[in-house]
Write a structure and sequence with these properties.
Length: 458
């Protein structure tokens, strides 16, 4: 497709259209060519095509050239406007964006997506999830589908857990690591009846997609990104399972703790998976963008006694830290290995995978640093911004610098400021007093084992 100069701003929308409707629009370049213009004129216009759009279409694998009339261009422009996944100021928006705005949610940038951060206040929303349940739009989480005869071989080589031994209809935490053993991403792999689905960090979606695609090209497998084609809703809290039993066609209570399942309700396809990464049991539901708004409205407003109030992503991050869970870009990156991060439980040496030799060497030794929890002294508790440590703040034991802060927050569950940090391995699991350098002012704390808040049974 070639867009005229005045339509170059539709590049983002064009990308969405091509990703949402690949079966209908296998196109090359289009531009506005009035009927009757000669072929030489068309070729001339074609050469003047926006190079960004040419590069985009090449990257999407478009191999067909199509010169079209103004009528078809109008159709595509309408599809761009009607597309449920849009971009504003270079930020993706989920199909539920209008619902969040109508609810007067505080919106913000989360890994390149414009997402709801809070509806009624972060602390109230954390307490709500701990007490009953909350529903969250987590459409920014990457969802990558792997299919084909070579899918198992791709995933066995890419993932640190033994994929071949993963049971059908389960969701298993895993890691992708590089040849040096550094963490490319912490992922969850769903083994479904007809395909695999990998949930990855929002910030790493394109990196993980490229990583898997390179492997798939050599192993007779197909990899495609489902993230912008679907909406993912997370319902978390002790009442989540019971509430969803009255909403979903599948009984959530009948699923195992690591259960996953895909199915259809009338014409709506969905995928459901249970998880516990927030310190409370949660259900993730991925559904077509077309039906997401109806599902959200039903869960939040039309389910009677089983209605669940929405919760923003800021509360989700507080829950994550309370659960002691690492996040990419905070605790994890490609210089951090599974043993330092405390994620060695996701590594199984019973199969061959990328980085296995490096991880074997690391497993035979002792990491210099380990991920640990810090609880600030009561005198430091509260919501004062200066009292909450920041990523990169130094941690000291006496005169010795022993580590750095990665994440921190005020915990309404504990009524204390808590932090995740990488500290010297010899004190990571001890109840040892330390100080945190916060803008030149020391904050008193103690190291503690993780999680801060144990998993609540639902």
């Amino acid at each position: 497709m070639c867009l005229g100069q005045r339509h170059q701003s539709s590049l983002a929308g064009l990308k969405i259209v091509l990703s949402l409707y690949p079966q209908h629009f296998v196109l090359g370049y289009f531009h506005f060519v009035p009927t009757g213009q000669n072929k030489q004129k068309q070729q001339c216009l074609q050469k003047k095509a926006n190079p960004n759009i040419r590069q985009l279409l090449d990257s999407l694998g478009c191999r067909y050239w199509l010169l079209t009339t103004g009528y078809f261009c109008t159709v595509v422009r309408k599809l761009i406007r009607k597309s449920k996944v849009l971009m504003s100021e270079n930020l993706f928006q989920s199909s539920l964006h209008d619902k969040h705005v109508a609810a007067e949610a505080s919106m913000g940038d989360v890994a390149g997506w414009r997402m709801p951060l809070s509806y009624r206040g972060v602390l109230d929303e954390v307490r709500q999830v701990r007490a009953t349940a909350g529903v969250m739009d987590v459409s920014h989480i990457g969802r990558i589908r792997i299919r084909g005869d070579g899918a198992l071989a791709v995933l066995e080589y890419a993932c640190t857990h033994d994929v071949a031994r993963q049971d059908d209809n389960t969701a298993t935490p895993s890691l992708l690591v590089n040849e040096s053993g550094g963490i490319i991403d912490a992922v969850t792999l769903l083994r479904l009846e007809e395909h695999w689905l990998m949930l990855c960090s929002p910030i790493n979606r394109l990196k993980v997609l490229e990583h898997l695609t390179i492997l798939a090209d050599a192993m007779d497998a197909k990899v495609d990104d489902q993230t912008t084609k679907t909406t993912m809703i997370e319902v978390a809290g002790p009442a989540a399972v019971n509430a969803l039993d009255h909403v979903l066609p599948e009984k959530a209570s009948a699923m195992a703790g690591n259960g996953a399942k895909s199915g259809s309700f009338m014409i709506a396809h969905y995928t459901v998976a249970r998880a516990a990464g927030l310190g409370v049991w949660a259900i993730n539901v991925a559904i077509s963008n077309l039906f997401a708004g109806q599902a959200w409205r039903f869960i939040t407003a039309k389910a009677g006694d089983n209605c669940i109030a929405p919760v923003g992503l800021s509360a989700r991050d507080v829950l994550r830290i309370e659960a002691g869970q690492p996040a990419y870009g905070w605790e994890l990156n490609e210089t951090i290995d599974p043993y330092t991060a405390g994620l060695d439980g996701r590594v199984d040496f019973g199969h061959t995978f990328i980085g296995i030799d490096a991880l074997r060497k690391l497993a035979a030794g002792t990491p210099a640093r380990k991920r640990a929890g810090l609880v600030l002294a009561p005198s430091s508790a509260g919501l004062h911004g200066d009292n909450i440590p920041r990523q990169g703040d130094a941690v000291r034991a006496g005169d010795r610098e022993i580590g750095t802060i990665t994440s921190a927050t005020y915990s309404p569950t504990l009524d204390r400021i808590i932090a995740l940090a990488y500290v010297a391995a010899d004190i990571a699991d001890t109840d040892q007093p330390v100080t945190i350098d916060r803008a030149g002012s020391p904050l008193e704390a103690k190291t503690t084992s993780l999680p801060f808040v144990p998993l609540a049974v639902s």
